[in-house]
Amino acid sequence: MADQHRGTCFCGAVEVSASGEPIDMGYCHCGSCRAYSGAPFVAFTIWPEDRVEVTGHVGSYDKAGTSERVFCSRCGGHLLLRHPHLGLTDIRAGILPSVTFTPRSHLNYAARVMPVRDGLPKFSDMPVEIGGSGELIVE
């Protein structure tokens, strides 16, 4: 049986669970992630959408028609982003405490507001596999 990871929103009213292991982990520096989180960048874990379940009362917002941001309708805690055009769900790294966060890259690094020198690959936008240019920025 696959590993089951569980976490909750800030108030505990919404539970998020994911089975197995994430297929990718990293950081996003895009303006939307920065504005939504109020942070210079966010940490993400990527899962196939069929391995993620959400229970409880959630709200959502889809600014551009490509990524649905899901939050607790009670406390407003950020939970995940659904990317239906990719069949993927981005669960914020802090939501599932049993997942060891091991970032592999930075996305949208051209939009950064804070440089990060950690030796990880830094994509100008996104990898080719998910619709980006695949261009890397040298640290």
From TrEMBL:
Top-level taxon: Bacteria
Pfam family name, one: GFA
UniProt-recorded Gene Ontology molecular function terms: carbon-sulfur lyase activity; metal ion binding
Keyword terms: Lyase, Metal-binding, Zinc
Matching InterPro entries: CENP-V/GFA (IPR006913), Mss4-like_sf (IPR011057)
PROSITE patterns the record matches: CENP_V_GFA
CENP-V/GFA domain residues: 5-110
Record family assignment: Belongs to the Gfa family.
Full protein name: GFA family protein
Organism: Croceibacterium soli
